[in-house]
Amino acid sequence: MKLLCIFSYLGNKCPSLTVNERCGHCKKLHPTWDQLGSKYNKESGPIRIGKLDCTQYTSVCAEQQVNGYPTLKYRGPRDLASLEKLFSEQLGIEYEEEDVEVPQAVSGLVEFTDTSFQESVVIGKFFHKRLEPTWASLAKSFEHDKSVIIGKLDCTKYKTICTEYEVKGYPTLLWIEDGKKIAKYSGDRSHEDLKRFVVEQLGERRDEDDDNEKERERTAPTVVTLTGENIENAISIGTTFIKYYAPWCGHCKRLAPIFEELGKKFVGFEGVTIAKVDCTQEVNRDLCSNEKINGFPTLILYKDGEKQAEYNGDRSLSDMAEFITSRLTHDEL
């Protein structure tokens, strides 16, 4: 059995699929990940789709060099088709593209059936109802906007779906996002008012995603905490700059905020990790002894698991950053 993918996320900042939906990038990936799990997590299958909470299993995430959320140990598009092709290539599974009956839009207006509705609302933003001819005009206004679909569903034919979305009167106008009812429109039904509502909803969601991304960047650790248990795997690939320190050390305390800024400076540098090790912890004592750490703080740069150099220069942000970048290969830069 092969564990092909790990979906890493950051506790309540980038939550599990059922608890919270604050993380924009995680939220966008949830439906696809659910589909993969439903399709491939079979008892006799060769693949397991999994997820891991990095706030609970920090050592594992450190070993895997997970510095952002969500992280897939795979580089490439994250749509369902691309991930399934990856399975095919890596494990020799026969891959056949499915012909999903996606309803065709006429001047931007999509008319759903029960099957196409369920297939379509898994991912995306939709504004559904049954209202003519204003509705057709609204659909025309957004026919080139790929971020929203204007659709209609006949509740006399598809009662189960309408019951699921608590449709009790006609017409009912719902804003549906990633399969969930977000808002019910109860304003004036002129074309301009409806259009304004759609624009407002799109703007709010985009702003929310931007805010979540900023929050993720602000709260994600910029300096990784390593221990004797995880350091070997954590530094095995790429460049790692480690501060060995003791909490009681005055020089370490003065360096701490500068080192945090150093971590922020290298966020986004693929293959570069800024880390720290507390030598006073029992789990780290053998490590610090083996590395011959005789004073605090001691700063050492590693490359693909091998010690490259000890830093003895000025402990300013600019000097430490220059020391690291001067030892990166062209590809890492």
From TrEMBL:
Cellular component, GO annotation: endoplasmic reticulum
Domain of life per record: Eukaryota
Pfam families found in the cross-reference section: Thioredoxin
A GO molecular function held by the record: protein disulfide isomerase activity
Coiled coil: none
PROSITE patterns linked: THIOREDOXIN_1 (PS00194), THIOREDOXIN_2 (PS51352)
GO terms for biological process, alphabetical: protein folding
UniProt signal peptide: none
UniProtKB keywords: Signal
Keyword Flavoprotein: no
Domain called Thioredoxin: residue spans: 209-329
Classification via PANTHER family: PROTEIN DISULFIDE-ISOMERASE C17H9.14C-RELATED, THIOREDOXIN DOMAIN-CONTAINING PROTEIN 5
Family: Belongs to the protein disulfide isomerase family.
Name under which the protein is recorded: Thioredoxin domain-containing protein 5
Organism expressing this protein natively: Armadillidium nasatum
Lineage: Eukaryota, Metazoa, Ecdysozoa, Arthropoda, Crustacea
